[in-house]
Amino acid sequence: MSMLKGMRVVEGSAFVAVPLAGMTLAQMGAEVIRFDRIGGGLDSGRWPLAPSGKSLFWAGMNKGKKSIAVDMKSPEGRELISRIITAPGDDAGLFLTNLRVRGWMDYETLVQDRPDLVMVTLTGDRHGRPQVDYTVNPALGIPDITGPEGHEDPVANALPAWDLIAGNLCVSSLLAAERHRLRHGVGQDVELSLKDVAAATLGHLGMIGDAVVNDAPRQKSGNALYGAYGQDFLCADGQRVMVIGLTDRQWRGLVQATDLQEAVTALEAQTGQSLRDEGVRWQLRHQITSLLEPWFTARHVADFAETFDSAGLTWSVFRTIKEAVAEDPDLSEDNPMFKMLSQPGLGTFPVPGLPTQFSASERALPVRAPILGEHTEEILAEVAGLDGTEIAGLFDLGVVQDPSFANSRSAA
Amino acid sequence: MSMLKGMRVVEGSAFVAVPLAGMTLAQMGAEVIRFDRIGGGLDSGRWPLAPSGKSLFWAGMNKGKKSIAVDMKSPEGRELISRIITAPGDDAGLFLTNLRVRGWMDYETLVQDRPDLVMVTLTGDRHGRPQVDYTVNPALGIPDITGPEGHEDPVANALPAWDLIAGNLCVSSLLAAERHRLRHGVGQDVELSLKDVAAATLGHLGMIGDAVVNDAPRQKSGNALYGAYGQDFLCADGQRVMVIGLTDRQWRGLVQATDLQEAVTALEAQTGQSLRDEGVRWQLRHQITSLLEPWFTARHVADFAETFDSAGLTWSVFRTIKEAVAEDPDLSEDNPMFKMLSQPGLGTFPVPGLPTQFSASERALPVRAPILGEHTEEILAEVAGLDGTEIAGLFDLGVVQDPSFANSRSAA
């Protein structure tokens, strides 16, 4: 039995963080209902797209959820959403959102219909101002320390790292609040902001302390591993590899596998410092790299891959995403986390399930994202508790969207 | 009352992901006991360091935990660790680790002492090979799409994003397994790997589908927001800003605030495409940027900051980390998440608590990291259930480390 079986979460969201949170809960076994406006939410066309024009992003972020599309401008639509969010059930009454809707959809209003509601709201910043990953990151200085040494301009993350971290914290915050409700019977309003998640992380990593107590600012250091040794090298076959000497064991293994012992001893004698100290490896990284460079330049990856693996070194090749998908078994069905799925309008490719393997349950296979409005009737009947006549009336009024409309629209 | 009050988690860890997981649980109110070897774990000297040589990183990642240092090479030390991990308590028997120790510290052995143990293990990859953030990232292709357009070399993340995501997933995986135990009385072995977390995330973001179904590979795009419009501009005062036109509302707001309506209409007429379509904004981003550039080049940030804010635009300035810490109230005690703490050997700076605010409890203030071994006696007495004579014996044998030794060492 999957971990969260029986739990029902309602999600009103767009983009990365909160959709990822809902999807993670769905992949842990919860029933997750995502509601959208008629025609789809703000992220319904988010890139990357398939050749059909359908969003690969949306399909990736909403796997295994149930979908209902509702006209939230109408009083009937708003009433319906409130009813779904506050529907009865011991393991229901859990609402995840990053839509800031004051009035009918805020905690104060919804809690009147379900006093033990747990509502988790992710905002841009603590002031309620809009912020996205692409603005939080430069505001806190990460682009300033990203990129090649000496490069003048800031370099942004290609990965929406803060969104991904915040989404995961939404999951654990919801689970913590639900645990509290199980034990004490009380729901609550749970709030966090994307910028606070990033600001806290800077502190956790020691970067705030570093900025305050050290004069020298942290600077760009290219692909070097910060604070110890780790560097990329171009090999004779044109491939690039990353090698790591973070721990003492990794460092000694690297030195041994590249026959560098004598050169290292000479460098230590010359500088009067011990490379067993990770900070010395960091300070002398350019010298170390000069020693290692000829070794890698003279070799193909195939010449040392087996030796490195059997010596337990921590290393990897650099790939493009296309190469990784084509070559790396960890991104294929060889990895039980992945399943080839054929998805309407998207094509067939490996789709990931939950990275976590729980021994008390079978590994759950990934389930494709819904078509917009796909579960409308089911949700209206089973969650909102409406009868057939009421449901037909809502369709007739256009308060909910007929999934065949979504089908025809997305195929257009 | 904080969310996880009464829960006890034992952590055997190093570096980013699992220490972050334990710290997050501690900041949610759990009692988290981190054990280390005598002298400190692999991350005890991780950079950044304070001028004293003490690790700001370690202090950041272990806030609010209890610490015990044990000689794990001795049978007595191993017995002690097992006893702490499997100690009785309804809300105990939760073990988080990224140390792969076969035999005395694996699930199969520990579960014999506590059948309902929940053990969460983070590995490098699913094969059990060592991997770190710095190797997983290039293997999956993110550095290939990071950096300025046209830049040839891969650019690594300065932020250990995968570690941070994996650590958060360790938290929710532990909470999900603990919820399952509360309801069904069974513990379990919970495993995930850093590389699987990264591989799954690539899939969630649509990048795997993109690599399979589209011919054109995703490429570097500098600081542009992928798939819609968002770009950085250098202003007349030398400051750089990021502006976002991801949603239709953001785009229209940006066009209006920069008086760009006529130019946009002309560009649409010239290309025969509508910039209301986010994908068109992405494809025509260079043309849009050319239109916006003179506007920003001619202005100081102070000239438009208030207008942008009152129009609700999504934007920010670029800062260095030092500038952010010095200037941004969100990184100071103005933000209730932060508290100025004076920490021995480190100095005084703002320290973050949990980003999440639970309405059912007061915001918990951050608690500094322990000194290595600081809670040895308390843990031996209250968790391991030893009496004074037994505890004295362990100190005498050197099985546990006297915290005064840690103090004198760290002050050296």
From TrEMBL, chains A, B:
InterPro entries in alphabetical order: CoA-transferase_III (IPR050509), CoA-Trfase_fam_III (IPR003673), CoA-Trfase_III_dom3_sf (IPR044855), CoA-Trfase_III_dom_1_sf (IPR023606)
Presence of the UniProt keyword Ion transport in the record: no
Alphabetized UniProt keyword annotations: Isomerase
One GO MF term attached to the UniProt entry: isomerase activity
Pfam family for this entry, one: CoA_transf_3
PANTHER family reported for this sequence: ALPHA-METHYLACYL-COA RACEMASE, SUCCINYL-COA--D-CITRAMALATE COA-TRANSFERASE
Protein name: 2-methylfumaryl-CoA isomerase
Organism whose genome encodes this protein: Actibacterium pelagium
Organism taxonomic ancestry: Bacteria, Pseudomonadati, Pseudomonadota, Alphaproteobacteria, Rhodobacterales
Encoding gene, per UniProt annotation: mct
